[in-house]
TrEMBL record:
Domain called YjiS-like: residue spans: 27-63
A Pfam family reported for this protein in Swiss-Prot or TrEMBL: YjiS-like
Residue ranges crossing the lipid bilayer per the database entry: 20-37
Keywords tagged on the record: Membrane, Transmembrane, Transmembrane helix
Domain of life: Bacteria
UniProt name for this protein: DUF1127 domain-containing protein
C-alpha cells in the first residue's frame, strides 16, 4: 500500500487576492444594507401617523430601523 502527500501550497498571491476580493465584497454588502435601510426609512416616513400605528410604529421608531445590527 503506497501513500503520498497530496497537499500543495496556494499559488503565489492567491491568499492576498482572496482577502482583497473578500474585503470589497464586505464593503459592497455594507453599502447594500445601508441603502436598503435608507429606502425603508424613506418609505416609512411617507406613511401617515395612522398607517404607522396600524403596523405598530411611531415616528420616533423610523430612525432606529437602519441601526439594528444583524
Amino acid at each position: 500500500m503506497a501513500a503520498y502527500e497530496t497537499t500543495r501550497t496556494a499559488p503565489f498571491g492567491a491568499i492576498s487576492t482572496y482577502r482583497f476580493i473578500n474585503f470589497f465584497g464586505g464593503v459592497f454588502a455594507a453599502v447594500a444594507a445601508w441603502n436598503d435601510a435608507r429606502v425603508t426609512r424613506n418609505a416609512l416616513a411617507r406613511l401617515s401617523d395612522r398607517e404607522l400605528d396600524d403596523i405598530g410604529l411611531c415616528r420616533g421608531d423610523i430612525e432606529a430601523i437602519g441601526s439594528v445590527v444583524r
